[in-house]
Amino acid sequence: MSGGAGRVERAAVGHDESIAAQRRWWDGEAADYRAEHGTFLGDSGFVWGPEGWTEAELSLLSPAGGMPPAPVLEIGAGAAQCSRSLRAQGVEVVASDLSGGMLRQGQLIDAIAPDHVPLVQCDGARLPFAEASFGTVFTAYGVVPFVADSAGVMREAARVLRPGGRFVFSTTHPIRWAFPDVPGVSGLSAHQSYWDTRPYVERDARGQVTYVEHHRTLGERVREIVAAGLDLVDLIEPQWPERNDQEWGGWSPTRGRVLPGTAIFVCRKPLA
Ligand SMILES: C[S@@+](CC[C@H](N)C(=O)[O-])C[C@H]1O[C@@H](n2cnc3c(N)ncnc32)[C@H](O)[C@@H]1O
Q1: Is-contact 138 161, C-beta < 8 A?
Q2: Name one GO biological process term (predicted).
């Protein structure tokens, strides 16, 4: 959560209002976000979340542990670090994001990196790609926590995937919504209902939404996946590794030793 609000509340926000706020927020924060997290992510790194587990360690995109079936689409790619990591291994990949500012950060990396990736600006819940055009779709903390219509994200991933292809996404673990979003020990005392799925909203003095995050319970996530026609292959709740002593907002070693911070859903489009 952004932490820089005028007014904070838990209240319903629709898809279009949410998208407009996200685009403004990520455009405005893009350079600072990269300055703060760029080293942790790596210009060509593939990190699934604040715990620091990489795709090379978890092998979630490919059942056999080799390269993921191509072409690969990343949604909510930010500066496209994950896509660049795949590209460096010879994988055909397209990186997409809602925010032109975040994609611009990707272009700045591309100006000095050997492995460029094609960039597309779009909403991950409304993809401008044909049916069955990708072998793999994924996102590491992009799109899913930020959209009102997360069921639409599942449907779109299913639509653009080929039969047998995987959609893998990491997002905030739903249990975190019961706890204060702070990294220290006070973040270990549950203070609100896990089942309250109203989004977290920040508004400016005029009442305009400046930032929003959306919550689903685990059961709701599973139901959205299944309703989109995808199979849920695995749900990873990665433990905090001893090697990582860095905090990322409310994600920290202190909390990570006790509570899951990230959920990674591994889904598959059934064979026709
Ligand atoms: C936390 S970043 C994750 C990206 C990258 N993995 C990283 O760690 O920097 C979230 C990204 O999701 C993007 N995003 C938010 N809502 C989106 C949407 N509806 N469609 C596509 N991208 C979206 C933001 O612009 C941002 O780049």
Answers
A1: no
A2: methylation
**75 in ligand 1 pocket by Cβ < 6 Å?**
yes
CB-ligand 1 contact for 99 (6 Å cutoff): yes
Q: Which residue CA neighbors atom 4 of ligand 1 most closely?
A: 78
Supply the CATH number for residue 235's domain.
Answer: 3.40.50.150
Tell me the average pLDDT across 213-242: 98
pLDDT at 2: 55
Which amino acid, one-letter code, is at 4? Answer: G
Is residue 107 in a domain? yes
Q: Find the DSSP H helices in 161-256.
A: 218-227, 253-256
Tell me which residue of 262, 253, 240, 241 sits closest to 183, measured CA to CA.
253
pLDDT tens digits, one per residue of 12-67: 999 999 999 999 999 999 999 999 999 999 999 999 999 999 999 999 999 777 89
Q: 104 lies in a domain?
A: yes
Does 5 score more than 90 pLDDT?
A: no
